Amino acid sequence: MAIAMGGRGQGELFEPAGAVLPALLPAVPPAGPPAVPPAWEETLNGALQAQQAQRAQRAQRAQQELQAQRAQRAQQELRELQAQQELRQLSIEAWDDACAAALNEIPFPGALDEEIGRFVRRVIAAGRSAPPNTQAARIAAEQARTDRGDPGVRAVQEAAYQVRHELDRMMGFLRFSPQDGPDYPKGLYLARCTPDHFVLPALAEHFRLRFGDEIPWAIVDEKRGLALIRDGEGDPRLIPAALPPAALPPAGPGRDGWEELWRTYHRAVNNEARGNPALQRRLMPVRYWKYLNEL
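Request: output the structure for the sequence above.
Response:
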């Protein structure tokens, strides 16, 4: 738009700068991606292709490593399974010793897992020194199992003894009480404990036979937050304890009539005149007392 300005003559028109400058500047092409010289374009394409090839090679190597790891794990599991079968054929007692020692959770001077591995290899090597599937092979394996002059054998035997000793205590000291309420299966009998070792798996068969198929039951390991439960016809199973210790029924005497009957029987057969507190504490450690409703 033209504007009339004074000083240049009446009626002269002056064009604003915005209207004049575009005519003086060179033409600017519309905005768009910058042009890439052909040489740079070829270099860029080559770099992208090389990067894609490297990625493909890395993916292929990762896949090959994964397959190798899976194959190695499968071979290791197969070797372990074969060793377990061979050990059981040579000496079922050695197999039981190794399984019991594996449940021990008291620290030993050496690594107990390594001692168990050496113990198993020692027994198998002794059995292989004789003709396979013969009495001589089993005798050699049994001699290796009981050779307490070997530190590894002695460590495994001591660890297994500690676990078996606590298993015997658990079988005698666990007290089951019927539980009612929405948090429990109908008719459930519950016992609690704080064992030194991880003995719940070893208790499964004993209490499965004791309760039969009709009565649901559970054993809560408060120390590890686990429960061994059987609420049907299947095998007992380990599950995380669904209830915290604070939500469990209080230890000690309850309101169950069978518990009161048991306490009456205990009072009747107990001879107070022959009480021996020191012997009682040795045979029945104090840490079990809070779970015994007769005390």
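The first strand starts at residue 3 and ends at 4.
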